[in-house]
Amino acid sequence: MSTIRMKTTAARRAIMAAMMLTLAAGVSGCGTDRMTTGSVSRTTGSKPVESMSSTELASAATALGKTYARNPTEKSIALRYASVLQMNGRSDQALAVMRKLAIALPKDREVLAAYGKALAAGGQLEPALDAVRRAQTPEYPDWKLASAEGAILDQLGQPQEARQLYRKALGIKPNEPSVLSNLGMSYVLEGDLKTAETHMRQAAAAPGADSRVRQNLALVVGLQGRFDEAEKIARGELSPEQAQANVAYLRDMLSQQNAWNQLKRQDKKASATN
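Structure tokens predicted for Flp pilus assembly protein TadD (274 residues):
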């Protein structure tokens, strides 16, 4: 299997859900952010957020929540708290945290970018696009914001415009793995998995590539039906149980996609004979 159709809303959502699963394996609800890039620190304590189990994320959310309650406009705390909430499947609460911070710091580019990501994670794509664009300044363009804007445009079904922004970001920050990964995901959403894999492998091999980038590579490999290879890549980032869970999810998703395609073919045959 080298291609898969992503044109319907349901299929696109399934792929976004699969990508989110790779970012937060084992997290109930899979409510993570939908973009690889961004300025928000994703580390709480000594362990990266995306590597935490559901129990660890819940504990981190409780601890950060207490600190946040004492000073909700403290930028670093609010950003970390929102990030953990998103990874914990609490997107609405994360958005509320970021909205409050954006009101307090309306000109802070990092805050506006994170607010845009929170809006996108909550499915509010047009407001997310507005927030990210307001954070960008033409005279001092930020590659992270360009890539984040591209990711939102991809979700809005505008891949060509999105890829222009990814290439703009790469012009500012050449060979940046997070941007290359977003570019790869753009092709995933369009169903061109071979091109997606090319960009994902380039991203994974680039200096500074993190766990999320390599997990996205595992996703693209798995979507092509190469499950053993995908699990091997995932095992380098996740526990064996988490890697197996991700691959099982992909198998199930692809089997549902194949079943849906078979039903559509049967409907066409039935219509032709009537």
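The radius of gyration is 19 Å.
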